[in-house]
Amino acid sequence: MAEDYILECTGLQKVFAGFTAVENVNLNVRRGAIHALIGPNGAGKTTVFNLVTKFLPPTRGRIVFNGVDITHERPAETARRGLVRSFQISATFPHLSVLDNVRVGLQRKANVATQFWRSMRCLDAFNDQAMELLRQVDLTSFVDAVAAELPYGRKRALEIATTLALDPELMLLDEPTQGMGHEDIDRVVGLIRKVSANRTILMVEHNMRVVANLCDRITVLQRGQVLAEGSYQEVSKNPAVLEAYVGQAA
Questions:
Q1: Nearest-5° angle of CA 3, CA 176, CA 82?
Q2: Long-range contacts made by residues 102-106, C-beta under 8 angstroms, separation at least 24?
Q3: What is the mean pLDDT of residues 136-140?
Q4: How far apart are CA 121 and CA 161, in angstroms?
């Protein structure tokens, strides 16, 4: 039986002014999996994310999402297909409440985000959906809090909620536990596991404990190329990976 891949990247290359950041990367993400993209600093992980989400055009290669070639699509078109990313730096609206942040995300999904003449009361139609998303990420007790005043781990949870508001089939999470203490890391790992139901997740992550506990499959990059791929048990025993990444982090 053929594998059911939601994302298929073939021969991806990205050259910046003569510097090759990504070279011949093949990346297949199984539907319903949590897939990690790891590697040392400068390995090309963020560049691959930018290529997949169309923030950068590839120099060469092909990107297929849900069986459709999206290589030359604009980022907004790709996002509307259900391929949505978060960023290393929290991308919420800092001066809006937690509830309003999620309602704005739901408004964009409903295609009313640019109708500036409409009353703010139109957002009330999204209250039930917003509260359900906040329940999923354990933020119901922070509904009226201003986003800028949230603890760091809770800000990341809010960012995941606003990403969920766009109803993604494939979520790309860029360093979701970066800069967190153990308590926040455990909370976000549990949150990612919970929201992965009926979704596929591709994540860049440096914390190998998180990768080991959470991810079904791992692709290791080094100098812009795929060094290894497999389960954590497989890649963690690969001598080349130990030298390039795991050993470096130990």
A1: 45
A2: 102/126, 102/130, 102/133, 102/134, 102/158, 102/161, 102/162, 102/165, 103/127, 103/130, 104/162, 105/161, 105/162, 105/163, 105/164, 105/165, 105/166, 106/130, 106/133, 106/165
A3: 91
A4: 21
Angle, helices 152-164/98-109, rounded to nearest 10 degrees: 20
pLDDT digits (tens, 9 = 90+) for 184-225: 888 889 989 988 988 999 999 988 899 999 999 999 999 999
Pairing of strands 60-65, 68-69: antiparallel
Domain assignments of the chain as residue spans, ordered by start: 1-81+199-250, 83-167
Which residue's entry shows tokens 């070639």? 69
Task: Give CATH superfamily name and number for 83-167.
Answer: P-loop containing nucleotide triphosphate hydrolases (3.40.50.300)
Residue 228: its H or E element: strand 225-230
Specify the CATH superfamily of domain 1-81+199-250.
P-loop containing nucleotide triphosphate hydrolases (3.40.50.300)
